[in-house]
Amino acid sequence: MSATGAPAQQITGSNRFMLLILLVPGLLALMTTFLLPMIWLARASFSTSSMAAFGGGMTLEHYHAALTDPFYWKVAMNTLSLGVTVSFFAVILSYPIALFLTRSTSRWRGVLTALAVAPLLTSAVVRTYGWMVILGDRGVINGTLQALSLTTDPVRLSNNTFGATVALVEILMPYSILAMLAGFGRLNPQLEEAASMLGASKLRVFWRIILPLSLPGILTGALLVFVLAISAFVTPRLMGGGRVFVLGTEVFQEATVTLNWPLAAALSVVLLALFSSVIVIYQRALRRLEA
Amino acid sequence: MTKRLSLSLLALLAASGAAHAQDKTPLNVVGFSGVFAENYEKFIIAPFEAAHPDIDVIYQPSKNSAETLALLTLQRSDPTVDVALIDVSVAIKANGEGLFATLDEASVPNLADQPDWARIDGDKSIAFSQDNLTILYNTETVSEPPTSWTDLADPKYKGKIAAKLADTRGVILIPILNKIAGADYKDSIDPAIELMNQFAPNVSTWEPAPDCYAVVQSGEVDLSICWNGRSQYLHDTQGGIIGVSAPKEGSIGQTNTINLVEGSAHADAAKAFINYALSAEAQATFAEQSFYGPVNSKVELSPEIAERIYGSPEAQAAQMSLDWPWIATVYSEWIQRINREVIAFN
Amino acid sequence: MSEHHVVVDNLVKTYPGAATPSVDHVSFALPKGEMLALLGPSGCGKTTILRMIAGLIEPTSGAIQLNGREISQTPVHKRNMGMVFQAYALFPHMTVAGNVAFGLEMRGIPHSERGPKVQRALDMVKLGHLGDRRVTQLSGGQQQRCAIARSLVIEPELLLLDEPLSNLDAKLRDEMRDEIREIQSRTGVTAIFVTHDQDEALSMADRLAVMSAGKIEQIGTPREIFDAPANEFVAGFIGAGNFLSGRVTAPGEAEIEGLGPLRFEAPARIGSQVNLMVRPHRFKLAAPGPNAFTGQVDSLVYRGQILTLGISVGGKRLTADLHTHAGHLPAKGETVTLAVAPGDVTFLSEAAA
């Protein structure tokens, strides 16, 4: 090791330069597709012109409007609670699947993993329509209930928060499964065997070994689902029947219907702030877990 | 493959070369998509081009007026669009940003035939057609079509109505309902909100997907509050499953405006086009073909066409128009009230 | 039967879809306090046996008794065995002390009693001062000690070690080898360990079982295995050897092709074909005579205490290990004579001609 130290360092030096050069296109792409729009968005949220034009005056009125209106507070709370509910159920449902896929030694494991994340191949819009067919008043479930004479009037399963939640959970599950599969690196069958040998029953192996070791994966999955859920707008809009007011749908409404772009921008910034605080909390939690 | 490709490339070159050879003025028009675009190209643009062989009208359909507005805002220093067809409420917003040029009767003589309410913001935006808000019903499940806006509150339609009201539809419905309640929309809209809340419990979805027509066609709901033009078109083309019932209390049209983009490089050709689009001839043809209400006061509609656009003679007599610039000042507020006082509770 | 602490009887493991069993009717018994090494090349089934005893693999058939109890149906967590895994399998989310305390906790031992027991176990493996460390901060040797402490603190009835030294570097390996042996004899725990390393097996085990293709070829003390290998496989697997085959021409004498007559001390029928072996250290430098072979030294490896030389005789190569203090040491090219006493010739097998 020490004998090759000097040349290795030289290579590292030129490597760093190469690395920078290789990073340039990616950084540029990130700048133009992510950073610049973000800056534009932030600037737009202070714009005095309703078209969010650059150059004009600056004002805080849109933040004032967004933050003093109890309705938007309620919308923010709705958004948070939808995010929490969706991530909770997505994690609960994804965890056994991800755990099975991680631990399975079956030769079908690859196929099963592909199947579990295959829904990602279709767009969220298509899958939302799928859920409308299942949960609608004349959908599969209501049709079955009525055919079995269990109900006469349709049970409202869609066009409300319930429908939006169900659809979001299913739509976002592949993301949490993928995140968990990536985050389960510390799981190792030998650790489970070691725990059994030391007298732990299957249940205690799960609680003391599997669960703590898979917690980082669970947290990553939950965070990913949460972030995607609170920024979702197509599914809450379509499955919510217009009744589900979340920041995503409000931003859409302000941007495309009432054409109040600065307010839409201000609401987006609020949503971003919500993201950031959750990510900060998540990273603190993760650091504590892995410390 | 390559041969065919190069052939078609050649054809393209030849076509553009030909256009240049004849020195045609290109005129870019951005407007609504779908059936509107089809009809507009066929019944307005084609006759105009026939009369003006030196002008080549290029129609670009846009998803919605908000998108058109975004495009115009982006291009304000160097517009590629010459004429924009957009919703009146969006047009007023655009005028606030100075995106459109003022027209005058000298270069657009047909302006003289437009009623005052249609000449918006000092002749910057001119209303050219109105698409009435109406009630759509499924002819297979609804034996007795509704005749009044108040029929929406009939308990038999519980969970059977689709109503997207958090946009211009709601903004138009408010003055209609206010009139039914005997109130003026400029005073207070509380009566309209109250009437909306009477039928709101019947509403299954406030966000019909994919749109307010398909949910009736598929039988998912019995009634839906939609635009007349497309409803009539679907009535004629979809085997009559969709029925249109214009309520007797009359309605208001979603008003479409034609606008000359400020800084257009082809302003003269644009004015000629706008003048033709506003002519009684063009508006009458478009009304007959697309069931959009004409604006030009010289247009005379046959009773059959008038009925398909406005409904019964009673409804025709009750047809209203709005003070759009005033509406523009309350547009967001009204939608907010519909969202917060009607939809959020139902 | 019950005098033995561990009894394995006709144990068989056939994996689904496999043509031949991985473990094929293996039986052995182990007295209390002894250490048995399962030795063999990879894939011979030694680890499978260990894991079946542990309860991590279900046997296809056969019985396993521990302390007189039949345990093959007992679930893993109730077998009360300690196991040291090849990669240690320490719980990464726990401290060193937490790992060691885990087994006690599972046994419901109160917190107040756990502390001293954990401390004693850590002291035993010289980790007493590192209890609060994360296991990921330990060196390889320390992890090994931690794993041993963890498996012994529960006072197991049987200690199982799966290739316990294979993850350590050479120097540490010798140290840990002695230490494991020392701890095992101090605690008196009965132990079975799996290895593919003959030195490890010979130096650590009270007894060793040499395995090949799912079967035990020979089981015995290191000395028995080394000096009296039951067959060619054992002889070849343990230590080096000069393998000589020939026809028995007289009682206790065989004619080795190319070498001439070789006397040995084993009954063999005249005329039969025998396989014999001479360990390199059994050869001595001598004057030509009976049971002596003369040839030119063509290879020479000096190993400190031992000089390994090779000579060619009649197209055969013989290897001899000579003690370097034994006076004259031959040089390359020198003609030497190697002699072996008939009692030092190992008889491996006999077949009718």
UniProtKB/TrEMBL annotation, chain A:
InterPro entries (UniProt xref): MetI-like, MetI-like_sf
Subcellular localization, as worded in the UniProt entry: Cell membrane
Every ABC transmembrane type-1 domain range: 76-282
Keywords tagged on the record: Cell membrane, Membrane, Transmembrane, Transmembrane helix, Transport
GO cellular component: plasma membrane
Membrane association type: Multi-pass membrane protein
The keyword Kinase is annotated on this UniProt entry: no
Annotated Gene3D superfamilies: MetI-like
Highest rank taxon of the organism: Bacteria
Pfam families with a match to the protein in the record: BPD_transp_1
Transmembrane regions listed in the UniProt entry: 17-41, 80-101, 108-126, 162-184, 205-234, 261-282
An example Gene Ontology biological process: transmembrane transport
Family, as annotated: Belongs to the binding-protein-dependent transport system permease family. CysTW subfamily.
Protein name: ABC transporter permease subunit
Species: Frigidibacter albus
Lineage: Bacteria, Pseudomonadati, Pseudomonadota, Alphaproteobacteria, Rhodobacterales
From TrEMBL, chain B:
Signal among keywords: yes
InterPro entries from the UniProt entry: SBP (IPR006059)
Pfam short name (any one): SBP_bac_8
Gene3D superfamilies membership: Periplasmic binding protein-like II (3.40.190.10)
SUPFAM superfamilies: Periplasmic binding protein-like II
One Gene Ontology CC term in the entry: outer membrane-bounded periplasmic space
Signal peptide stretch: 1-21
GO molecular function: thiamine binding; thiamine pyrophosphate binding
Keyword tags: Signal
GO biological process, one term: thiamine transport
Name recorded for this polypeptide: Extracellular solute-binding protein
The organism of origin for this protein: Frigidibacter albus
Automatic annotation (TrEMBL), chain C:
MF annotations from Gene Ontology: ABC-type transporter activity; ATP binding; ATP hydrolysis activity
One Pfam family from the record: TOBE_2
Entry GO terms, CC: ATP-binding cassette (ABC) transporter complex
Positions of the ABC transporter domain: 6-238
Top-level taxon of the source organism: Bacteria
PROSITE patterns in the cross-refs: ABC_TRANSPORTER_2
SMART domains: AAA
Keyword list, A-Z: ATP-binding, Nucleotide-binding, Transport
Family matches, as PANTHER family: SPERMIDINE/PUTRESCINE IMPORT ATP-BINDING PROTEIN POTA, SPERMIDINE_PUTRESCINE IMPORT ATP-BINDING PROTEIN POTA
Family: Belongs to the ABC transporter superfamily.
Protein name (database record): ATP-binding cassette domain-containing protein
Organism encoding this protein: Frigidibacter albus
